[in-house]
Structure to design on (388 residues):
């Protein structure tokens, strides 16, 4: 059994502080203005890249810092804790595992150093489709091999940061579902350079938060055969492999959100005087904030456990899923306590509470819905009958 890291090392604390300090250069007003215009935080992402933080998981041999998932999760946590939104750049970290574990040496040598130094950006991950949703194995986008190329046809929805990325990690069906033994077979992963790709159309999709999300259309798009990652037909397993990392990183972002909401609520509850005393003295205001704080602290322990197990190379599907669920729910509890404590001001954009409220809500739904986490725990951890 791995050692569960509950106390951070001095290096990890220093990393956390350095990220938090960098984020102070991008205050609430920065994120608020971008949110209003639904624009990408380009300057912030550039600065984070330049400082090397987005290359945390890339091995040193390829120009990254070769850190673990715990350190990567601390980086994302602090972005959200500072009032920003790590969703603008988290995908690079959770996509990375698929390339690192299953990419060829040639692919790694070609892409990783450039991703590490910021010349290339890999922030887009194309899985979800209009007709399959959470049922990934039923996706309909096809990639058919013709000599030196694969020809891709289909549609994806809710694919984020495509217009801000040079590379896209794509999941498509290479063998029809009728021709495979199990529906999880016959899917393949491709790492595609999407710059100037013929037949590829991106249509931005406005959502309730600033998330640079799009609908993608592939119309006889030719991609080089060497964009295939690993073996043809094994893509679903590769994507599943990366899911634990994704769950842990998103859990950490939720912890960061939770801490931001609690700090904001505590401060406001001390400052706001109504009926002659600080509103925080009222148990109706104080207790929901105290409860949310306890939920965030407890959920964070599961995040630390999942990260420790992941970094020790142990199976951690249950822990990563539980962490994602508990942290997203705890952040949502903190969001509601913070909004309630602010009264009407919680709804005023200039307080940032309503923006963070929308941003943190996403994590109950994406990248995986909390219902499906419950189904995973019920069916795979506890062995109850399957719903799908
Ligand atoms: C802002 C945003 C950004 C996103 N970015 C990306 C991205 O970059 N790349 C990408 O590939 N995807 C992305 N997604 C998609 C996201 O991962 C999906 O929305 C999510 O996986 C759910 O799929 P769906 O919306 O089709 O819901 P559906 O699968 O249609 O589900 C609808 C509801 O039914 C529930 N449900 C379905 N089946 C069951 C069951 N068996 N048991 C219990 N409940 C069930 C679900 O939990 C959910 O509540 C993004 C989504 C959003 C909103």
């Amino acid at each position: 059994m791995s050692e569960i890291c509950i106390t951070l090392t001095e290096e990890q604390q220093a990393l956390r502080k350095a990220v938090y300090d960098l984020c102070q250069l991008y205050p609430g007003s920065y994120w608020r203005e971008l949110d209003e215009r639904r624009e990408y935080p380009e300057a912030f992402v550039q600065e984070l890249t330049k400082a090397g933080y987005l290359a945390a998981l890339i091995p040193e041999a390829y120009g990254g810092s070769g850190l673990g998932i715990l350190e990567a999760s601390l980086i994302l946590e602090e972005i959200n804790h500072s009032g920003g939104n790590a969703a603008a750049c988290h995908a690079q970290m959770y996509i990375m595992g698929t390339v690192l574990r299953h990419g060829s040496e040639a692919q790694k040598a070609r892409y990783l150093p450039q991703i590490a130094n910021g010349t290339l950006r890999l922030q887009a991950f194309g899985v979800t489709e209009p007709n399959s949703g959470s049922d990934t194995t039923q996706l309909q986008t096809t990639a058919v091999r013709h000599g030196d190329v694969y020809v891709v046809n289909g549609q994806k929805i809710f694919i984020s940061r495509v217009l801000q990325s040079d590379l896209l990690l794509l999941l498509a069906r290479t063998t029809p579902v009728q021709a495979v033994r199990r529906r999880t077979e016959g899917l393949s992963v491709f790492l595609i350079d999407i710059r100037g790709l013929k037949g590829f159309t991106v249509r931005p999709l406005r959502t309730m938060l600033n998330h640079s999300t799009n609908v993608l259309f592939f119309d006889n798009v030719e991609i080089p055969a060497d964009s295939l990652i690993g073996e043809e037909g094994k893509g679903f397993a590769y994507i599943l492999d990366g899911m634990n990392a994704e769950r842990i990183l998103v859990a950490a972002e939720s912890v960061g959100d939770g801490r931001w909401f609690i700090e904001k609520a505590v401060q406001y509850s001390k400052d706001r005087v109504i009926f002659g005393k600080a509103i925080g003295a009222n148990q109706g205001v104080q207790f929901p904030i105290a409860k949310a704080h306890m939920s965030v602290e407890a959920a964070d322990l599961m995040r630390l456990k999942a990260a420790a197990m992941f970094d020790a190379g142990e199976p951690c599907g249950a822990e990563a899923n539980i962490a994602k669920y508990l942290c997203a729910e705890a952040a949502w509890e903190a969001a509601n306590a913070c909004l309630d404590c602010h009264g009407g001001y919680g709804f005023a954009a200039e307080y940032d509470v309503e923006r963070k409220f929308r941003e943190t809500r996403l994590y109950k739904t994406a990248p995986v819905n909390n219902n499906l986490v419950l189904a995973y725990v019920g069916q795979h951890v506890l062995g109850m009958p399957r719903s799908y």
